[in-house]
TrEMBL record:
This is DNA-binding response regulator, NarL/FixJ family, contains REC and HTH domains. PANTHER family: TRANSCRIPTIONAL REGULATORY PROTEIN NARL-RELATED, TWO-COMPONENT RESPONSE REGULATOR. One of its GO terms (molecular function) is DNA binding. The lineage of its organism: Bacteria, Bacillati, Actinomycetota, Actinomycetes, Pseudonocardiales. Keywords: DNA-binding, Phosphoprotein, Transcription, Transcription regulation. SMART domains: HTH_LUXR (SM00421), REC (SM00448). Residues 3-120 form the Response regulatory domain. Transmembrane segments: none annotated.
Length: 221
């Protein structure tokens, strides 16, 4: 079971999400919080697998709550940040704090549930609508390396292909379709790519690919 804590100052949103999770056989909603401070306290007390945080909440916003939760010793909860806003500064701060995902509430309920499963598995997920700007921010703020880093030689040709598809913001399902392999095979490849390159998650894999000029940098004109 994936144990979830819902933190949002809108009771109707929490109620709707709890009702949706109750229909899923692999989810258990273990608690709710109406503000950021309560989210920090309840996450420490209940130790859910995933805490879903709204960005804008009273007393402590979702980003500050993310930082507080993930800085606690022994914490292994994955944080999924949801918002109606897609301001870049929210994305950068959430990812710097260690959030596993940043998604817009405009997603369908089914997509939100799928995102919780992704976070619970330990993967990172960003709404596709903000992925390009994220790449632009990091790709243009980092100096490209003069030579290809030696750790890239550790990748097999297939793993390198997977890295390029990750950089193209492809999901595991999309990578599986393009390579005509199973999703479990893709997950194995992704895990090996991250391990061999010493990367924390898929987001950092995207940045790595751009920093090392493995893909064409975005045209910002």
């Amino acid at each position: 079971m994936i144990r979830v804590l819902l933190a949002d100052d809108h009771a109707m949103f929490r109620s709707g999400m709890r009702a949706l999770l109750d229909t899923q056989p692999d989810f258990e909603c273990v608690g709710e919080a109406a503000d950021g401070r309560e989210a920090v306290t309840e996450t420490a007390r209940l130790r859910p697998d995933v805490t879903v945080l709204d960005v804008r909440m009273p007393r402590l916003d979702g980003l500050a709550a993310t930082e507080a939760i993930l800085s606690a010793p022994g914490n292994d909860t994955r944080i999924l940040v949801l918002t109606t806003y897609d301001a870049d500064e929210y994305v950068y701060r959430a990812l710097r704090a260690g959030a596993s995902g940043f998604l817009l509430k405009s997603l369908s309920p089914e997509e939100l549930v799928a995102a919780m499963r992704v976070a619970a598995r330990g993967d990172a997920l960003i709404d596709p609508s903000v992925t390009r700007r994220l790449v632009e921010h990091f790709a243009t703020s980092l100096e490209p390396r003069a030579a290809e880093p030696p750790e890239l030689a550790r990748l097999t040709s297939r793993e390198r292909e997977v890295l390029l598809l990750i950089a193209d913001a492809c999901s595991n399902a999309e990578i599986a379709r393009r390579l005509q392999v199973g999703e479990e095979t893709v997950k194995t490849h992704v895990s090996r790519v991250l391990a061999k390159l010493g990367l924390r998650d898929r987001v950092h894999a995207v940045v790595y690919a751009y920093q090392n000029d493995l893909v064409t940098r975005p045209n910002l004109k």
